[in-house]
Amino acid sequence: MPSLFALHSVTLLFSFFSFPLLIDASDILSAVSNNNLKLLKSYLKKDFNVNKLYKQNLFGENFTWSLLHAASYYGAIDCVNALMAHSADIELQDTWYGGRALAWAAFGGHIDLCSLLVKKWGADPLARNKENQTAYDLVSDPENKEWAGILYNVEVKLYFIFSLNKLEIERE
């Protein structure tokens, strides 16, 4: 039977060296799809690439997407904030249509999450995917006025801001 000292030495040895984290993709994807912040944080505490693309089959299509894409699609706001706090790339594209987190949140119908992605995390509402669609083009209920200022009327606002800045420059 090994001595307590020997077991303690082995434990210290394993904690001293950094071993690659083996990640069960289905486990971590399930965590974000269910907004399981506790499980996600257990992965984030380790040396973990938050921008890794994971294989996914959705609507009969095989592609890869990131945890941020999945969290955005499922409306997992807590997980989105945790991933962004750990340097997730807000403009990372999936391999299906080149969709970004904002497009997935819009496709999922998550207005509050889209607002958060744009206003807090700087997602580009005018970014286009491989089919030349913006996030607004993927919304299932485009007549809903709550999308205004988040995903549409953005071009007008940006033009107006640019025009004001141009007028200030011309006056000088």
CATH class: Mainly Alpha
Quote the distance from N terminus to C terminus: 85 Å
- Count of helical regions: 8
Poorly predicted residue ranges: 1-20, 155-161, 166-172
| Major sheet details | 2 strands, antiparallel
Summarize it.
This protein has eight helices and two strands.
Word description of this protein:
The chain has 172 residues and is mainly α. It has one domain: Ankyrin repeat-containing domain (Serine Threonine Protein Phosphatase 5, Tetratricopeptide repeat), CATH 1.25.40. It is 47% helix and 6% strand. The protein contains 8 helices and 2 strands. α3 (37-44) packs parallel to α5, α4 packs parallel to α6 and α6 (101-107) packs antiparallel against α7.
Brief descriptors of the model:
globular; disordered N terminus; Serine Threonine Protein Phosphatase 5, Tetratricopeptide repeat; 172 residues; two-stranded antiparallel sheet; mainly alpha
